[in-house]
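> forwarded from #structure-qc
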């Protein structure tokens, strides 16, 4: 075969290269938004587990340590809610409540912690990995509540009038095809339960 003839088949022509780039550009334009939505959807679906873990931790620490505990929410920069679990060991005349008692912090143990060798320090979890509140809206019920207190028996302390009774996570319209609205209901028994605020009784998924 003539050398000039062979050179015609040695590589891509400019037209072929431009077509390939156009195809790649189209695939990226379609794929990147879909991938972004997929990642957001996975994070949104895991949000309820993030908060359920905190509530379960608070209740478990209360029962295990025979102490009062609390699950406290605080807003962060992305509009979601970080959580922290503290414990308190009541003494006669000084109950553990929102206004009294020595509560643990992430830096220090509570006063009167009987486990001096390995005292409990508060557990903090940041919600920075969750989607921004534009994509997943957290709603607290009653409005203005910041958390829930547990007794040493694992029951919700009803002396706090602003105790959290429900945390609802509502996805943005762009995610609703793959992400349902989920709520965590916190009954007096203290065991948080997932429910769907969009359905009504007698559907078993309905919120109490």
């Amino acid at each position: 075969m003539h050398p000039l003839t062979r050179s015609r088949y040695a590589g891509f022509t400019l037209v072929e290269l431009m077509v390939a780039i156009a195809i790649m550009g189209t695939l990226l334009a379609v794929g990147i938004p879909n991938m972004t939505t997929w990642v957001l959807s996975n994070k949104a679906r895991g949000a309820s587990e993030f908060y359920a873990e905190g509530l379960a931790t608070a209740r478990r620490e209360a029962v295990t340590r025979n102490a009062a505990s609390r699950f406290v929410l605080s807003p962060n920069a992305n509009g979601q809610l970080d959580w922290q679990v503290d414990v308190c060991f009541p003494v006669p005349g000084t109950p553990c409540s929102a206004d009294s008692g020595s509560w643990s912090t992430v830096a220090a143990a509570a006063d009167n912690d009987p486990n001096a060798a390995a005292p409990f320090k508060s557990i903090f979890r940041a919600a920075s990995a969750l989607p921004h509140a534009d994509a997943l809206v957290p709603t607290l019920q009653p409005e203005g509540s910041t958390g829930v207190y547990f007794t040493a028996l694992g029951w919700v302390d009803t002396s706090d009038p602003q105790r959290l009774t429900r945390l609802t996570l509502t996805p943005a319209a762009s995610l609703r095809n793959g992400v349902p609205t989920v709520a965590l209901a916190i009954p007096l028994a203290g065991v948080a339960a997932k429910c769907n605020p969009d359905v009504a009784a007698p559907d078993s998924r309905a919120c109490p």
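QC bot note: Helices lie at 3-7, 14-65. DSSP finds two helices and eight strands in the chain.
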